[in-house]
Amino acid sequence: MRGGSNNFSRGFTRINADQRSSAFIRGLIPSIGWTFATRLLMIFNSVVAGIIVAWWLGAEGVGQLAVINVAVATIVQIGSFGLPSSNTYFIAQDQSHFRSAAINSLIFALGTGAVLALALMAIASIKPEWFGFVSPELIRIAALSIPFQLITLIGLNILLAVGKIREFNLLDLAGQSFVLINAALVLLLLKRGLETLVTFNTLASILVASVITFLLVVSAKSLTQSKWRADIALLRRMIVYGLKFHISILAGAIIIRADLLVVNHFRGVAEAGVYSVASQFALLLMLLPGVIATLLFPRVTSEQDARGETTCLVSRYTTLIMFACCLAAVPFSFLLPFIYGPAFADATKLLLILLPGVYLIGLESVLVQHFNALGLPRAIPVYWIVTLILNLVLVFALVPRYGAQGAAIASSISYAMIFALVALHFHTSTGRSFAEVYVLGSLRG
Fold first, then answer.
1. The whole model's pTM is what?
2. What residue ranges do the domains of the chain occupy?
3. Alpha-helix runs per DSSP H in 304-433
4. With pLDDT > 70 as the criterion, what percentage of the chain qualifies?
5. Which of 200, 236, 247 lies closest to 386 in space, CA to CA?
6. What's the CA gap between 33 and 220, in Å, rounded?
7. Any idea what DSSP says for residue 439?
8. CB atoms within 10 A of CB 19
9. Is 296 exposed, middle or buried (0-12, 13-18, 19+ CB in 10 A)?
10. What average pLDDT does the chain have?
11. Residue 111 pLDDT > 80
12. Which of 293, 352, 355 is nearest to 88 (CA)?
């Protein structure tokens, strides 16, 4: 009787878990759909803007703009100190932290962003050779956007933490749409050059950050009655969590973006421009798992489930979806030279080299949310450091000899490495089998 009772209890528990999982997926699908649709529009904006820049400024213009954007984006990631995710983590657990966390983050973004902007300007003036053929003046103009890009990055994650997915998506889309709007306005209508385009992009960053700050103030009125004041104790806790997270973010940003700067340094802006096109489409393929991971993080943070049931459920769907996306990218890669022009013929080969790694790091981005939600064990940042070291060794060994192709090989191997380490840690810590995590329809009995 006891064995039968236990079997019945386990079966009943499993039915309840399955029902909760199904309800979660049904609730998550509209959010994923809405967010992914937004990302598709962002993809359209990026692709069309890239085509405009490619045809009007050529491969060198694309390369210079890519170097500028990568330099600024990397600095923004460095300056965030993990606070975007830290805000999501603390606010998702307790919304009474909203105002204090928001004011802490905004003050931090302005102060740190200003220091980093000045540092980038100084580096561009003292060591202009680090940026290849990109003029220091262009770097200085773009650097002005750093504090405001930090505000945007942090502000969007705060909106996500309180469930304002529609506002999160609309503001993210609006900010990114200026990439296309500015390219069309500056190059097609005004017939100006790269300096004007970079200036307009900087002004757009300031505008978007101002709108997000205003919306945070408005949102706080309906969420909490606490006062707008800095909370040093909370900031200390946020930074402790954020720094652990920041190591992973920073290592990932360097692995994903910095190889373009190495290609630019050793092989010039033209080859960097071609590689930037392949890298851009690789990043676009990472958007969907990134969307899923972004929406999953607040959910699993509130659950604090050490067994990772929700993460396994979402990972199974992600495995199938990412396989279909990467498979579809194979024939599409052969269209890149026709879309961007004959100078970008090598973009096809570069994207094909990147695809296996892109598939695996997409799965990793979902799987790692389990650990992010549990306070981020030290092993995860260590894995990223190990992967970063491997990536740097490969990049500096391969790029001088093989150029952009070497960078693509180094990136794909590095993406596979971080996936293997995180996946193994997940299996070890949760006891979940390979099928439970990656095969749709697999359930533990």
1. 0.69
2. 20-438
3. 309-333, 336-340, 347-367, 369-373, 379-402, 404-430
4. 89
5. 247
6. 27
7. S
8. 10
9. buried
10. 82
11. yes
12. 293
